[in-house]
Specification:
Elements lengths: L1 H11 L6 E3 L5 E4 L2 E4 L1 H17 L2 E3 L1 H8 L2 H6 L12 H26 L9
Parallel strand pairs: 1-4
Antiparallel strand pairs: 2-3
Length: 123
């Protein structure tokens, strides 16, 4: 269904930019310690593959979370709920800022490659 949804979106709007955001990291208790759920990595690989096939950009939320800290870090700072799967408002805010920064980085890279368009149309 996920693949089909992306296909339908791309048919409906073939020239529009597309971004797939991979799953956030999920944790589980393992001998009293919180560890990352290996199924998250599997899901991330699958979603990345489908995004590429559909011509969409992909944001790896799980990898971004790992850059910030392991799941214990996220739990201790109350950035994920106790289910260790869903971000709290504080975690959501961090993700939103990360997406914004990634967008600006991509825009800067695009402008560096293509130019900003000023002066090309006679303005």
């Amino acid at each position: 269904r996920y693949r089909r949804s992306l296909e339908l979106l791309r048919v409906a709007r073939p020239t529009e930019p597309c971004l797939v955001i991979g799953p956030t990291e999920h944790g589980k208790k393992n001998r009293g310690r919180v560890t990352n759920d290996p199924l998250t990595a599997r899901m991330t690989r699958w979603q990345r593959k489908l995004a590429v096939e559909a011509g969409c950009a992909f944001f790896d939320a799980s990898a971004w979370m790992a850059e910030v800290g392991d799941m214990n870090h996220w739990v201790k700072r109350k950035l994920v709920w106790l289910d260790m799967a869903h971000l709290t408002p504080g975690g959501q805010s961090k993700l939103g800022h990360a997406l914004y920064r990634a967008h600006l980085k991509g825009l800067a890279s695009f402008m560096q490659r293509k130019g900003d368009g000023i002066g090309r149309s006679g303005l």
